[in-house]
Design brief:
Length: about 500
């Protein structure tokens, strides 16, 4: 992410506001010298010198990420085989570079995740590893945990295996490049040894989307990224992201399939960490339906929640507040560790399947432990008592870290909204009621598109969802990301 300070006279004020949010949340912004030295030493290791890995460097892998990315967690290869597919999915093997009990691991536990804000990110591991040695950058042999799937004509799993491997990516692509190749009928990269992976990815992704629809599943990751992009753009930052696209969705289904297999393997072994999300409550869906209509999103009575989310047009101006409201429908997913009987309901109900996070080990602490465990199980090894005892601690750390990450994201939105309104104190705005909670009225302002809490007097009348109201901006504090509104008479 790159700031464009020249077009913004008060960029220092904005970045000071972000710094305050990070400090309040305990986000670590630098690596201790001991950790940095350990990472630099680890980066000198030779992956090819370690025995026991399957050499898959002949497989023409590619990575697909936002432009400018350096922390490349995954590389893929997809082949058509008869009516089905063979999918190779290599995931960076953090366990090769980061020793258990060492200073790098200890620092990662302090962080939990990579934290993102519009001005910069703070990585889980030192960049010499996360953007260098451990990253699946092209033209270098790298250690990976490799998932190999054979799929039928419906893109359902026929067989699957997991192995510790040595891989080599051939190219680093962006989502836009994938779209352009597919639109050209495969002509742009057709001469490359990996070129046939791209039309195969499209076919695979569309079939997996159909399977998700059949299950009644729905996911919000791309919508969440859209909120991040919008926030940064409003502050004058140029993000190293592209607009959500079909190719991003196709690619996400490779990750979802991999996370599903990892969860199945751990459930079968009766040990692991799964990502669990309870079913959406009917009252929450009814409330969300009313909010969606109030925000200008048609929702026919016969359309389900999942169908509605899949139908969203991300170009509409109110999609960001709609996504925030959608997150409340399911109340957030949790990491749940188990050793023995799995959780009573181990399903991620938004995806409508068993699921575990394992495909972003350079950015999430838990993924490294899930990958280590699944690879050991595939090789017939059970986790040690120490490893078993670590799993619930990992789950607890991840739940805490993701909460901080969400609060940082919300804080960035607050700063963006305060910045947009900094010169409009005293003005009156038209708004729509989104809800009432904690003695406040939550509203969505029409222009600019800002979501705000408005103080409600003790004797104020009840306001209905979707009711139009008028609010007055009482004060703005950009450095705190605070806007204070009052209901107008």
């Amino acid at each position: 992410m790159s700031p464009r300070a020249s077009s913004n006279p008060d960029v220092a004020l904005i970045e000071a506001a972000f710094d305050r949010k990070r400090q309040d949340l305990g986000v670590r912004t630098t690596f201790p010298d001991e950790v940095q030295r350990a990472a630099e030493a680890a980066a000198k290791r030779d992956p090819a010198a370690v025995p026991g890995r399957v050499d898959r460097t002949e497989v023409p892998f590619v990575t697909i990420d936002p432009p400018g990315s350096r922390d490349l967690d995954q590389a893929l290869r997809i082949e058509r085989g008869g009516d089905g597919f063979r999918v190779w999915y290599a995931i960076a093997d953090v366990g090769f570079w980061v020793e258990r009990g060492g200073p790098i691991e200890a620092e990662a536990w302090q962080r939990g995740v990579t934290f993102y804000a519009p001005d910069r990110r703070h990585s889980l591991y030192p960049p010499v590893l996360s953007e260098g040695a451990a990253s699946l950058l092209p033209d270098a042999a790298k250690p990976a945990i490799l998932f190999v799937f054979d799929l039928d004509a419906r893109a359902e799993i026929v067989t699957a295996k997991v192995e510790r491997a040595l891989v080599r990516s051939r190219a680093q692509l962006t989502y836009q490049q994938v779209l352009e190749d597919v639109a050209s009928g495969g002509k742009r990269f057709g001469g490359e040894p990996w070129g046939d992976s791209l039309p195969a990815l499209k076919a695979f992704g569309e079939l997996r989307r159909e399977r998700e629809v059949e299950r009644g599943g729905v996911s919000l990751p791309i919508l969440g990224q859209h909120v991040q992009r919008t926030t940064a753009a409003s502050l004058g930052y140029e993000l190293e992201y592209e607009k959500p696209s079909a190719s991003e969705d196709w690619n996400s289904h490779v990750s979802l399939l991999t996370g599903h297999l990892a969860a199945v393997r751990m459930i079968e072994a009766k040990v692991g960490i799964v990502r669990v999300l309870a079913p959406a409550e009917e009252d929450a869906v009814r409330t969300f339906r009313r909010v969606a209509r109030a925000l200008g999103f048609p929702w026919p009575p016969a359309m389900t929640y999942a169908e509605f989310i899949r139908s969203l047009d991300l170009s509409k101006p109110n999609v960001a507040p709609l996504v925030w409201q959608a997150k409340r429908v399911s109340r957030g997913a949790d990491y749940v560790a188990f050793d023995g009987e799995p959780p009573a309901d181990p399903v991620h109900h938004a995806l409508a399947m068993l699921y575990a996070h394992c495909t972003a080990p350079l950015r999430r602490l838990a993924d490294r432990y899930v990958l280590d465990l699944v690879a050991d199980l595939e090789e017939g090894r059970q986790p040690s008592p120490e490893a078993r005892a670590t799993l619930p601690k990992v789950a607890a750390r991840m739940n805490e870290a993701e909460t901080r990450g969400a609060r940082l994201e919300r804080g960035a939105v607050d700063v963006a909204e305060a910045w947009l309104l900094r010169e409009r104190v005293g003005e009156r705005f038209n708004a729509i009621v989104l809800g009432m909670r904690d003695g406040k009225v939550e509203v969505q302002i029409e222009n600019p598109p800002v979501r705000a809490d408005v103080k409600r007097g003790e004797n104020a009348r009840w306001l209905d969802l979707g009711e139009p109201v008028s609010v007055t901006l009482a004060s703005v504090k950009v450095e705190e990301g605070k806007t204070i509104f009052e209901l107008a008479e």
